[in-house]
Amino acid sequence: MFKKVLFVAGLSFLAACNTSIDNKKNLDNNFVTYVNPMIGTSKMGHTFPGATAPFGMVQLSPQTNFEVMHIDGKYNPKTYEYCAGYQYRDSTILGFAHTNFSGTGHADLGDFLVMPTTGKLVLDPIVTKDGGKGFYSRFSHEKEHAEAGYYTVDLEDYKIKAELTATERVGFHQYSFPESSDAHIILDLVYNVYQHDNKNVWTFIRVENDSLITGYRQTKGWARTKKVFFAMQFSKPFKSYGHKKYDKILYNGFYGRFNETKNFPEMAGKNIRAYFNFDTKANEKIQVKFALSPVSTQGALNNLKEEISGWDFEKTKNETQAKWNQELSKIEIETIDPAQKETFYTALYHTMLSPILYEDVDGKYRGLDQNIHESNGFTNYTIFSLWDTYRALHPLFNVIQQERNNDMIKSMLAHQKESVHNMLPIWSHYANENWCMIGYHATSVIADAIAKGVGNFDKKQALKASVTTANVRYFDGIGDYLDYQYVPDDKSHSSVSKTLEYAYDDWTIAQIAKSVGDTETEKIFLERSEYYNNVFNPKNGYMSPRMSDGSFRKNFDPLDTHGQGFIEGNAWNYGLYVPHQLDKMVALMGGKERFSQHLDSLFTMELEDKFIDQHEDITRDGIIGNYVHGNEPGHHIPYLYNWTGKAYKTQARVRMIMDTMYGPGVEGLCGNDDAGQMSAWYVFSSLGFYPVIPGSDHYALGSPLVKNAILNLENGNRLTIKTLNQSKNNIYVKSLTINGKQIDRNYILHNEIMNGGEFIFEMSATPKL
């Protein structure tokens, strides 16, 4: 139904690739060819197709949100569809922005929109004051192409071919113009993803010379005070320039009557669009290098100088794709279906789009306190969507990105030091805490790393930061949680979800305490980890909202996702969240047989539309019965049959989800990717195991989708995974051997992965009862 993007890598790229496998293995090693950045760009996948380096600060990507572009301050309900600035259904491009979220459930960023045009200069993106056409351009998907680290599209209205690539801190544009005496490159500092007229606090542009400009923008969007600095360099001098200011704020003695001032070297105001004019020959290429910095324009200039020294676009593209190839080569797979390989490597690619690098080449970064800090002994990262990513993304990093995850934890500890609340990050980006979603899940990320022997961060400091975070009474019901030993529903929204998540996080803190020998703290938080019991209602058999007087809420509907004590879920699915004490939860809910029947019903029952109406994060595309795979609270649920003595049902459910909820097309994600969590679920599940209990060294077994896999680990070891009799119908695990030893349990251990060797799954069409 949709165009599948195919990739062909040139010989120059093959020469540039330097992978860890040294071209010696029997599997393909040009992994970039299997990445399709268009996957998830339709509907609610919220991914972007543009160019970026692994974990790069720059995400240079087209912006197509024509329908929601406005500056009237009114919320447009379609904004949610454009969290990444792009929707595949669109046929118009507004330009190319340098910062974009990947797969999040909130809109922000979209900094520094660049758009090449020809003909009469137009500075309005959609429509001019006299009703004329704005500077947007039509495009077609037949003339659009995306690869890891590269994006190209033909701008039909201007007969310009746009090509994009990027290093970690620099976006590299290449525009092939037609012959023109009126060629322009517009720099739009008004545009934002999720635009409203008060988002910009201030913008500034300085013309340094005839081919270099610098500046910055400060916004107050989801990140309440975000500053991004830039340096923009052209490959040829512009013949003239100017700008239009869309406000009448006094600056340097000049009012709005200078809105279209030409040849003024400094431009400032809340909303500014600048333009740079050129003469071009037929098919002449004008290149733009655009560096970002969280610190200063000088920082951006330094980043520009260090990361791209010349004007060789192909060289930069090849180097970035070689970096992608190096990262993707950490897991080599064979599949029975080529489409599965594309789905897998795109998922793996999506797990490396955030968190992002957030420091200049000299190690300086803007901290949560808005002061400038210098990283010491670590690399600073930002974009921590922790309610999502603690579940599988960070556990995946503990297998294939251990050094980076260590730096991410150190970044979280720096965040806590810089926080006026003394809290670890909840949902943070660009030196801002957004307080989005519930729980304090940085503790889980820390505990999981400790359980798996990852990192050299200070564990005692991490424990202190975790304990402090878990005792900030004024944050999101924690005070009531401590006083009542649950979150009362009449005092806080999402009370049951908060109680369950807090109890789990408290267990992770107990694990951190145990690792440093702090038995007193371990005991305190183990006791707190039992508080989930206090929201279980034995009369109805569900985790249920409880009032401050001790009674359970009346008129409670366990199917409804609206206002029933749960956030983005209901009692049927979110009520199954006790990962740290699953055996006790199963017993609490009636024992293994009854709980297994509950899971059966969850996957097969009909859920009426009224229970999910007007719910942005729960859509029909991601639902199987009443199980919601398109949202994170239930990602562990398919694996829970392992705790009922019916592991074969886990194997069947997991395989079915991989086959139906993921795919190689633009609609290949059944919900927004949530900063890589959805994709991390697929990566783990494809290999045959999943971290149901982050903070432990256990992985629950599932049903591997791969035919063969090799994990090239940072410690130098190599794990080979083989599946015998793999096929579409052979979804059940008949046996598993690890290094020749038969495994008669439904989990594997982290050290069994990291020690390398060989896993052999024997598959069958018949379940092992």
From TrEMBL:
Subunit (UniProt): Monomer.
Reported cofactor(s): Ca(2+)
InterPro entries according to UniProt: 6-hairpin_glycosidase_sf (IPR008928), GH-type_carb-bd (IPR014718), GH92_a_mannosidase_put (IPR005887), GH92_N (IPR041371), Glyco_hydro_92 (IPR012939), PNGase (IPR050883)
Glycosyl hydrolase family 92 N-terminal domain: residues covered: 34-293
UniProt KW keywords: Calcium, Hydrolase
Gene3D superfamilies reported in the protein's UniProt record: 2.70.98.10, alpha-1,2-mannosidase (1.20.1050.60), alpha-1,2-mannosidases domains (1.20.1610.10), GH92 mannosidase domain (3.30.2080.10)
Name of protein: Sugar hydrolase
Organism: Polaribacter pacificus
GO MF, any single term: carbohydrate binding
Transmembrane segments annotated in the record for this chain: none
NCBIfam families (UniProt xref): aman2_put
Residue ranges constituting the Glycosyl hydrolase family domain according to the UniProt record: 300-764
Any one GO cellular component localisation term in the record: cytosol
Gene Ontology terms: biological process: carbohydrate metabolic process; glycoprotein catabolic process
